[in-house]
Amino acid sequence: MLFNSIEFLFFLPVVVVLYYLLPQRFRWLLIFASSCYFYMAFIPKYILVLFAIILIDYTAAIWMEKLQGKQRKRLLLLSLITNIGILAFFKYFGFANQTLIDFFALFGREFKQYDLGIMLPIGLSFHTFQSMSYTIEVYRGQQKAEKHLGYFANYVLFFPQMVAGPIERYATLGEELRKAQPLQYANISAGFRLLLLGFVIKMVVADQLAPFVNEIYAAPDHFSAWQIALGLVFFSFQIYADFFGYSLIAQGSARLLGIHIMDNFKTPYFATSIGEFWRRWHVSLSTWFRDYLYIPLGGNRVGKWRWAFNTVLVFGISGLWHGANWTFIVWGLLHGFFLLIEKPLKPFANMLSTFLLVTFAWVFFRAPDFANAQAILKGVFIPNAKALNWLDIWTPLSALGLLVLLEFSYRKQRFDGLLNQFPSWLRWGIYLVLLFILVAFSGTQKFTFIYFQF
Amino acid sequence: MGKQLLIRIFILALGLVLMNWVYKLVFYPKDLKQHSPEMLELWKQQRKSDILYFAESSNMNVRDTDVVKKSISELTDDLLIHFKIGAVNKPATHAGIYKEWIKNMRAPFPKAVIVTMNLRSFGADWRHSELESVLQAGVVMLKPYPVLANRFLLALNAFDNKTPAQREQEMLREWEEVKFDFPFKVPHSTVRLWDNAMANGSFLLPDGSWDMEKITLACHYVKSYAFQIKPDNPRLKDFDEIVLFCQQHKIKLIFNLLAENTEYAQQYVGKELVQIMRYNRNLLVRRYSKKRGVTVVDNLELLEGLDFSDQNWTTEHYGYNGRLQIAKQLAKALRYSK
Lengths: 454, 338
Known about the structure:
Chain A is mainly α. Chain A has helices at about 5-20, 25-40, 45-65, 70-105, 125-140, 150-155, 170-180, 185-220, 225-255, 275-280, 285-295, 305-320, 325-340, 350-365, 370-380, 395-410, 415-420, 425-440.
C-alpha cells in the first residue's frame, strides 16, 4: 500500500482507532495484522520472505544468547548469510548474471543468461538490514533476545517504516512497540503535523519536480544545457523531498500510535562538507554502515591507506545496497572519493561546493545506465543547438521555493517543536495554508516513493 | 478538552469550506482546462448549439482522399436547417465518460443530446484498453464532490487507475474464462479458443504458407466483436444513467448505434460473428428503444465494407459516403422525433 493513496487514508485512521480501543496485550496482534495487510497490498506472496527472515533471526538470537564462543559466532554467521543470501537472491542475482555475461563478452566468450522471473520484494534491503542489526546487537551482548515472536515480528514488519525505513535498532523501536501507549493529545497532534508536512513535501514538492526530471533523463539530447542543469538540481531536491516526505509520513503514522521513530534527515543540503552531508542524509543507513561495517573494519583508528580503502569500500557497498546496478556502485564510490579528498581541500568546502558534488553524484544514481549519465553530463557542458523541447519550469520552481522556505524554517529546530512556539492562531493558520497547498497543488501524476525500489 | 476539540474541528471545517471557495474561484478553471478540457468545450458548445453530439474518434476521422472532410455531426448539422449541432469528441471515449460530461452540463440544457453507441465499447477489448486510466483521470475533476476534494482525488489517483499490464491481464482472463451463452450455435465457446482457431492457419497464401495479414485481421475481428452483452456489463449501467439524467431533465436523447464492418466480419470470420453482432444490437435496441423510449438510430449494418476508412483494422472511421449516410439517418431521426 502506498502512503499517497486513498487506501492508506482509510487504513491509517482505522488502525489508530482500533489500536486505542484494544487493550495493550492485544495491540501487538493488531500491529502485526495491519502490517501484513499493508505489505500484502503490494505482492502478497512476498510476505513469506519476511516471515522467513523473522523466524530465522528470532530463533538465531534466542540460541545465540544461550551459547558462547564459536557456536555463538556460527549462529550469527548463519543469520547474516541467510539475510544476505535472501537479499542476494532477489536483488543481485540478475545483476551478477549480467555482469558475468558482459565480462565474458569482453573475451569473446558467452555466459548463459538465467532469468528467474522474480521481482524484488518491496523494501527488502530495509528489513534485512534492520533484522541483521538486531542479531548483531544480540551477538555483541548489547541487546537481549526477544522471546515474544509477535513483538519481534512487529519490529521487522512495523508498517510505517517497513518498506523504506528508517532502519531502526531493536533498542529503540522494539522497546517502543512493547510499551503501553496511552492515548495522548500530544501524540495525535504531533502525528498529524508530521503527516501534513510529509504529504506536502512528497506530493507537492517531489511529485511536481518529478515530471521535469523524468523528461530530462528520458531524452537529454532534446534539451538545452541550462534545462539539463536545472533538471539535475531538481533531482537533488526531488529525491530529498521524496524520501524525507516518506520518512515524515512514517514518523507521523507511528506517532499517532504513540510510537517514536528516529529522524532520518537533518536538512542535509545545509551541510558544508560531504562528511557532514552523510551525518544529515539517511541517518539510519549511515549509522548502520558506521556501526556494523566501518568501525569493525577499523574505522579511523587505522593507517591512512587502510582508512582510505575502508571509506571507499563502505561507500561502494552502500551504493550496491541502493541498487543492483554499476551506476549505484559508482555513485557510492564517488561519495567515498569525495570524502577522501575533502580533508586536504577543507578550506574550499562550503555549502555550495557540497551541494554541487552531491548533485553531480546523483546523476549516476538517477541515470538508468552509464550511457544516459554520460549524455546528461555532456548535455550540461556542451550547448545543444538542436534543443527544441520546452518544459514548464514555473510549477517545479514554485515547488522548490516551497521546500526551500520550509527547510529554512526548521533548519535549527524540528518542525513540530517549532510550531509549538507559535500562538495557536498562527499555528492553525500554518496548518490551513499547508493543507490548502497539499490539496490544491499536489502533482497529478502519482509517483511511487523512489526508495521503495530498494 | 471536548470543547477545545470541537472548536478545532469547527475551524478545520470552516477552513475547508473557505479553501474550496478560493480554489473554485482562482485555480479550478486552470485545472479544469488541463485535466478535463472537453468540459470547457462542452460548455462552449452548449452556449451556441441546440443539440449536442458526443462521440469518440468516429467523429474526428476522415479518409485522406475525401474531398469533403466534414464530420458526422457537421454533416448532420448541414442537413438540419432549424437546429445547430455542437460536438464534443475525444478518442476512445465511451458511455462511462459521456455520462460524466452529460451530468455536468449547465442549465439551460440542450434540446437534444446524441450519444454514439459503439458496439465495440461493450467488449473486453475496449473496456480493458490501456487508455482507460487516462480517460478516467480526465473525469475525476467532474465528480459530484466539492471541487477541492476532486483535485485531491486526482492527486491520489483515486480512480480506476491500473497499469497497462494489469488491464491486459483482465482482458486475457475475460477472453479465456467467459463462456458464450447465445441461443444459437457458435463455433467456439470462448474468445480465446476462437482466436486460437483463427490464428492457426485460417488463411493461406497461394504457396501454402499462412497469410498473416488476413489472419491478424480475422483474429482482431474475433477479439473486437465476439462477446455477449450481459446484464452486468458496465456500459449498460453507464447508458442507463445517461437515460435517467436526460429523462429527469427532459432532454431528448438519441443513441447513434454506429455502423460496423459486418461485411468484412463475415468475410474474415464467418456468419456466426455477424450473428453475435446482431444479437447484441437487438439487445441494445430492445433495452433502450422499446423499454426506455430512447430513439436508437440503428446503423449497425448500414454501410458496406468499402465505406470504412480503415480496411485493415476494426474501427468506426468512415469515408465521406459512410459519414453522410449516418448523418442522414440521424437527421431523419431528429426530424421525426418529438
